[in-house]
Amino acid sequence: MTRPVRTLLAWCPDWPVIAAQIEVGVPAREPVAVLHGNRVVACSPAARAEGVRRGLRRREAQSRCPQLVAVGHDPGRDARAFEPVVAAIEQVVAGVEVVRPGCCAMAVRGAARYFGGEQPAAERIVEQVAQECGVEAQAGIADGVFAAGLAARAGRVVPPGQTPGFLAGVEVGVLDRPELTDRLRRLGIRTLGEFAALPAGDVLTRFGFDAALAHRLAGSTDDRPLTVRRPPAELTATEEFDEPIDRVDVAAFAARSLARRLHDTLAGHGLACTRLGIEAVTTHGQELHRTWRHDGLLTVSAITDRVRWQLEGWLTRSLAGGDPARPAGGGIRWLRLVPDGVLAQAGQQPGLWGEVGEGRSRAHRALARVQGLLGPASVLTAVLRGGRSPADQVRLVPWGEERAPAVTAGGPGIPAAPEPWPGQLPAPAPATVLTEPAPATVQDARGQPVTVSARLAVSAAPAWLRIADDLPARIAGWTGPWPVHERWWAPGEARRRARFQVRLADGRALLLVRSEGRWCVEAWYD
Amino acid sequence: MAVLELVEPTGHAIQRASDLAGAAAALGRVDRLVPVDPELHPLLPEGGLRRGSTVAVAPGASSLVLALLAGASAAGAWSAVVGMPGLGILAASQAGVALERLALVPEPGPEWATVVAALLDGVDLVVAVPPGPVPARVASRLAARARQRGSVLLPVGRWEGAALTLTAGPGVWEGLGAGHGRLRCRELTITAQGRGAAGRPRRLRVRLPDPTGRLAAVLPPAPALAAPVPGRGRPALAVIDGESVTEEVRAA
Questions:
Q1: Which residue segment(s) compose the domain that B243 sits in?
Q2: Does B94 touch chain A (CB under 8 A)?
Q3: Considering only residues 269 to 288 of chain A, which have any Cβ-Cβ distance to chain B shorter than 8 Å?
Q4: Using CA atoms in the order A299, A305, A307, A310, what is the torsion angle rounded to 10 degrees?
Q5: Residues forming a β-bridge with A171
Q6: Closest partner residue to A429 among B91, B123, B179, by Cβ?
Q7: Do residues A452 and A373 share a domain?
Q8: Does some domain include residue A78?
Q9: For residue B177, what is the nearest residue in chain A, using CA coordinates?
């Protein structure tokens, strides 16, 4: 078995609080707590001094410290704020693994030789983080990431080979496995040393696989290599123009060369991007930014088209002087294409015999031309989503953008289980859904208007239907009312409707809706 | 000599050039057609939509348009619908249209003909609803574009020079009574009339949509169930053959 790698771990205490200070501007010197699900996730030293602890309820934390500032937990914010810290460390040490936001590990061997010892290397890294980012960090060195994490908390450098001894005295709670540590304590095992002394096979059979992993950590036999972060490649394409661009055809020409450069860079890395950010700076120093979404097949011409559409929009607006706050005639001096949502291009290969890819690119070319004729939002593609009425269940997105359905409960990209939508129409769905419901009148056999009461009682069987000013048509079959009461909790958006399926004597069938005392035709089953 | 003896008796090891030509022609024939749902084969002279042809669909038959798109879409074809803002997308999905290969241009505006021509360049099936009467010159220009590019133009409404015109007769809906039930399926007669070989009208009776929203064959007449006796409530149970029982259950 290989020995664990000698690891240096840099740890920023209370990182969620620091991240909130960096991004939101919460004063970290004051008592601050970051809460998730009504429980304290992290708190500032000032709050800790008042008795606030991790895992406390919000109410209890506030009772212990009334001036407590509560901030919501946001893992994305933590990760974003940590990025500059990692970049700063990467300036002095190569091969950094981000363990979690606020905590990163690196192999110490190279740094120790470069800075002349482990202690100076640790000091250099702490200093670098403090200078570059203004963030306080602690460093610890030990064998393996887990032991290095404990060493960082203590601010210690554990000499080589003494890690098992260092771990032996530590309480089992640091394993961060509450169920296991609870059981160990009840068995009288209180320190990692005692836990590590148990036979590995017995730990596996008695406590399971996860406990066996914990056992290896406790015994300092964690020989997992560091998964080193690769610095992201520079993919942005930038162009500065000596002569500011104020004509559309010149802009299109510039867009083409820039698009080709971006495409070559992406292809060289074997990547594709799903979002394209276009940034421009005008001669008046105004910064313009717009992001285009795409489903991942941005060819040179697709990039060119989008840049050209965008530049046309900006130039025609600035030439027309539509914005009174801005002096007219601001040409574009500086243009930048930023690929975003970058992913490996593996999924974008043409089909084995070429047909699939060929048909696709032919269709994309034709549709892009129509977009060029009528504007990008004129060609649409449909994505299904949850909803009650036939129109609600469809979302139309401009062609070429990501076909992402509405965000599902499982998070983006994870197909949610089909939620029950009580009141959804049964299949088959109507083949024509009117964009504007057509007003109609419904009468019973005696010519009296049919009404639906608040308790969904139909006044009489509908017998005649008259749509707008057409001749009345006889109703041969009907069913309903099917009530739909949507968003009743939001006063402005509440909709209460009753639906009827109706079959006319001439064979046509339609969907009638009664809402706010009026009848409308919503869809035809034609 | 020994080699010849080995190969000749089997007759499969060597393929003559003439055999290959036949196979290539068969392949070409398949490639020349945009496939449609097998249920619609009796309606179309060649058993599919010939590439480069113009097939008009009478207005008011959106389900028929969707059924045509669904068959082609299942085979991987791309389709576009121009000028139908009210097309039921949910119905399209239920009919079997792959939505990721369906493009919609709901508002083509005055550039209608240009848009349709541009789409014919790259999309296999283009459904187009003209904003008004189409001049013969524009119609022939679009038909020529489709012929040249090997796409199929499906204009909705009257169209000069269409190879085939599909009309859907009045349908009979099932499942809806007076104040109860729901629309389940519709039996519909589709008529195809064209020029030349398709001059004689062909009629086909199908279920469109069936209870799941797809195109299906008409069910064989149900075996005589015991007729409900008025005033006696439920009909007596009768033994009927197994397959139609499941059909009945599914339809219910």
A1: 221-252
A2: yes
A3: none
A4: -150
A5: A191
A6: B91
A7: no
A8: yes
A9: A477
Of B106, B111, B179, the CB nearest to A380: B106
Asked whether the beta carbons of A437 and A515 are under 8 A apart, the reply is: no
325-384 of A, contacting B, C-beta below 8 A: 355-356, 359-360, 362-367, 369-370, 373-374, 378-384
Interface residue B103 vs chain A (CB under 8 A): yes
Residue A227 within a domain:
no
Quick one: A342 and A377 in the same domain?
no
Chain B residues inside the 8 Å CB shell of A301? none
> According to the model, what pLDDT value does residue B237 have?
61
Residue B54 maps to a domain: yes
What is chain A's alpha carbon radius of gyration, rounded to the nearest angstrom? 32
Domain carrying residue A454 = 432-525
**Confidence grade of residue B186 (pLDDT, cut at 50, 70, 90):** very high
Residues of B in contact with A434 (CB under 8 A): 86
Q: Are residues A251 and A314 in the same domain?
A: yes
Structure tokens at A102: 């606020």
Q: Chain B closest CA to A370's CA: distance in Å?
A: 6
Using CA coordinates, name the residue in chain A closest to B185.
Answer: A428
Phi-psi region of A296 (alpha: psi -120 to 50; beta: other; left: phi over 0): left
Q: What is the b/e burial string over B97-107, where b = at least 16 CB atoms within 10 angstroms of the residue's CB? A: bbbebbbbbbe
Nearest to A371 by CA among B129, B85, B113, B118: B118
- pTM (predicted TM-score): 0.59
Task: Please check whether residues B151 and B247 belong to one and the same domain.
Answer: no
Q: Where are the alpha helices (DSSP H) in A287-406?
A: 300-320, 355-374
Structural contact between residues B129 and B37, judged by C-beta atoms closer than 8 angstroms = no
Select from B62, B103, B111 the Cβ nearest to the Cβ of A432: B62
Distances (CA, A) of A206 to A198, A210, A211, A436: 11, 11, 9, 67
- Closest residue of chain A to B105, computed from CA coordinates: A379
Find the helix packing angle between A200-207 and A209-218, rounded to 10°. Answer: 150
Segment A290-314, tens digit of pLDDT:
777 765 567 777 788 888 877 777 7
Please give the pLDDT value at position A357.
60
Edge to edge, the sheet with strand A6-11 lists A96-100, A103-107, A6-11, A138-143
A515 and A469 both lie in a single domain:
yes
Report pLDDT digits (tens) over B89-131.
Answer: 999 999 999 998 999 999 998 889 999 999 998 899 999 999 9
Cβ atoms within 10 Å, residue A45 = 13
Is the distance from CB of B121 to CB of A376 less than 8 angstroms? Answer: no
Count up the domains in chain A and report the number.
Answer: 5
10 Å Cβ neighbour count for B4? 9
- Whichever domain contains B132, its CATH number is 3.40.50.300
Mutate to test the interface with B, among A299, A393, A396, A479 (most CBs of B within 10 A): A479
* A501/B contact by beta carbon, under 8 A: yes
Same domain, A389 and A499: no
**Parallel, antiparallel, or unpaired: how do β-strands B79-82 and B102-105 relate?**
parallel
CATH code of A17's domain: 3.30.70.270
- Cβ contacts of B128 within 8 Å, gap of 6 or more: B82, B83, B112, B116, B142, B153, B154, B155, B156
Task: Tell me the Cα Rg of chain B.
Answer: 23
Kindly give the interhelix angle for A75-92 and A118-133, rounded to the nearest 10 degrees: 120
Q: Flag whether B186 is in a domain.
A: no
Same domain for B156 and B237, yes or no, is no
pLDDT of residue B12: 47
Cβ-defined contact of B88 to A383 (cutoff 8 Å): no
CATH number assigned to the domain comprising residue A295: 3.30.1490.100
